[in-house]
Amino acid sequence: MQPSASPLRMNASLAGATRDNSEAIMCVNSLGNDTLVSSTASRVSGSIFLALAASLGLPGNAFIIWSILWKMKGRERSVTCILILNLAVADGAVLLLTPFFITFLVQKTWIFGRPICKVAYYLCCLNMYASIFIIALMSMDRFLAVFRPYMAQSLRKRDVVTKVLLAIWLLAGALAVPAFAYREVIENKKLNFSICEPCHVSLGDSIFHYTFETLVAFLLPFPIVCISYALVLFKLKSSRFEQRPRIEKLIAAIIVTFAVLWIPYHIVNVIQVVSNLTTGKTSDKLKNITKVSRAGVTALAFFSACVNPLLYAFAASDLFKIFGVGFVAKLLEGTVAEIQKRVKSQRDLVKGLVRVGSRGESVNLEAKNGVKEVIINGELESFVYS
Prior knowledge:
The chain folds into two domains: 14-338, Rhopdopsin 7-helix transmembrane proteins (Up-down Bundle), CATH 1.20.1070.10; 356-386. It has a three-stranded antiparallel sheet with strand order 5-6-7, with helices on one face. It has helices at residues 34-38, 40-71, 79-95, 98-107, 113-147, 149-155, 158-175, 177-181, 203-219, 221-238, 246-277, 280-315, 317-323, 327-355; strands spanning 14-18, 24-28, 183-188, 193-198, 363-368, 371-376, 379-384. It is mainly alpha-helical. The chain crosses the membrane at residues 48-70, 82-107, 119-139, 160-182, 215-234, 250-275, 295-315. Belongs to the G-protein coupled receptor 1 family. Belongs to the chemokine-like receptor (CMKLR) family.
C-alpha cells in the first residue's frame, strides 16, 4: 500500500530524501504527506480509522487462525479452509504494522528510520499480492469443485496445496520488491518533519512502479477471479438438485468486499500514471485528484485486512448459536463434505449410465478429461460432465 498523499509538485520538481547516513538523494514528482501531517482532522481521523481496523482485525484474524489450527485439530481441512488460514495470516501480519502508522500520525513525523520505513511498506505490499493471489486460488478451487470434482479431489492433496501456497508467498515476496526499493524517508526541513513515502529518481520509475503494481495485483488476477466465480454461480443457479452452498456465498462476499476496498486504490494508481504521461493543466488536475484521494483510498485498502472475520461471522451466525466459538470450524468443515458429496454424485451418475443407456440399452462408459465416452448400440457418443 502507498502512504497517504499531499500536495504534488510539477513533473520536473524534486524532493530531497535523506538516508540514515545523511546521503542525499533526489525524488522526482514526490507525493509528500504535508497535508496529512499538517491537518489535525486528517491525523485524528486517520489514527481512529487505523485503530479501528487493528482492534477489529487483529482479534478477528487471530480467532480464525485459532479456529482452524486448534478447533479443527485432528480433522480433515479442506483447501478452502487452508486458504482462509493463509489469508488470515496475511491480514493479521499487516495489521501488526498499525502502531507504526498511528505513531507517525500522532507524532506528525516518521521517527522509526529508513529500514523500518522500507520494511513496513514492503510487508504491506506483500500482503496485497498474497491476498489477491490467495483469493484467485480460492476461486479456481471452487471452479474445480463444481465443474471437475474428480480433478479437484486429486489436486487437494496436502503436498500439492503446500507447494502452491509456498509458491504464492515467494512470488508475492518477489513482486513486492519495488515497494521496498522505491521507499525512502523524505525530510521537510521547512516544516520540520520526516515522511516515509515513494521516492522515484525518474518519471519512468514512477510510471513503472504504479503500472506494475496495478497490473500484477489487480488487472491480471481479478478477471480470473470474476470469470471463475461467475461460472460457478451460474452452474449452481441452473442446477435443479442443489441450492447454492453457504461457503459459495461466503467466498462471493470475500471477493466483492476485496474489489470494493481495492478498486479505488488502483484507480488512483492509474490516474497517477496518466498524470506523469501528460503535461499542462490536464496533468495538474490529475495530480490534484491523486493528492486529495490517495490518503482515503489507502486507508480503505488497509481496512480490507480486517473485514474477512466479520464476513465469516455473518455467514455462520446461525451456527454460533449451536456450536459457540467453534462455529467457524463447523462452517469450514462443510467444504470437505461438499467435495465428497459432489464426487459421490458423479460416481452415481456414471454407474447409472453404465447400467442403462438413453434408450434402455446397456452401455460401456469411459471418462477422459471430463468427457464421458458412451458406446450405445456399438456407436460412440460423448457428453461433457460437470
